[in-house]
Write a structure and sequence with these properties.
- By secondary structure, this protein is α/β, with parallel strands linked by helices.
- Among the domains are: 50 residues, N-terminal domain of TfIIb (Single Sheet), CATH 2.20.25; 152 residues, Ribonuclease H-like superfamily/Ribonuclease H (Nucleotidyltransferase, domain 5, 2-Layer Sandwich).
- The strands form 2 sheets. A 5-stranded mixed beta sheet has the order 6-5-4-7-8, with helices on both faces.
- It is globular.
- The model has no long low-confidence stretch (mean pLDDT 90).
Length: 324
Amino acid sequence: MSKGVNPFQDSVFSLPAEDFALLQDAIAIRLNKEKYGSSSFEELAEQYGRKSVCPSCGSHESALNGKTPDGKQRYICNDCGQIYTILSDSIFHSTNKSFDTWVRYLVLMTFNVPLEMTETLCSISHPTAMLWRRKIFATVDGYQNHLVLHGRIWIDETYVFDSTVLHEDGFKKKRGLSNNLLCIVVAIDTFGNSYAEICGHGRPSSTRIYKTLRNHIHSGSTIVHDGEKAHAFLIQELHCTEEKYIADNSPEYLKKMALINNMCAWLKRYLYRFIGMNTEYMPSYLNWFVYLYRVKSAKEKWPTISRILRHLILTETTFKRKRP
């Protein structure tokens, strides 16, 4: 074969549109099989050992009950008689898009691209793109609830504009750390565990900082911070020691606080991609940010998309589009 000559080019160009689409599907199936070990959600469920769960009563006790018209295995619940499939209690229940389309969407989600780009590159509608984002977010709801940082822990606050105030009568943008700004407390430890949570509006009080972080920092840890007075009560109550570096942009401050400053910058860049979001969903965006930070930190051990796929297929949760 001559260099640069593709022997399949003429054959591919001669294919009718319908056959060309089938060829594309076959190529996608092979690529996904080679990369992820599966080319469908049913195969993925089998690969990672997902158990059948009754979507009605949550029972794991079931029996086989034939196949669906498209060949998927059905189960019948031994407790309530509900008939379902392996995906009935997952975010992939009733999806009519291909595994390959979902994988492309997930890749884009890991780069936190705007919805318009996912719509174009995945050939899906805006409502579908939004629905899928919320389905994925639903699998990490509560992800941070049980996170506890320990050892040496950096803490700080970052601020983003609360777009909901734009709809208030007499809105006037204020300067400084006003109540127009959402305060987000950010923390990270030496083991790469991170935490990000809303802490009200404007500059936080000692009480707000304590309530936000008290269940997420191990007692006796070392708190590295910028000397904010509101941190003192938390440090005292959790019997922590402190390392304090005043935010004066000195070489020592920039070096010692680089880890938390970088994380705050990453978080702000992430949130700025979704300017105008309803702040009702902010906790979901923060959960995804922290989850993705952890997954990407371990990408050398476990490829990012493979790990996310495993998480999604094993999570027992559903999300339905809200009807007006």
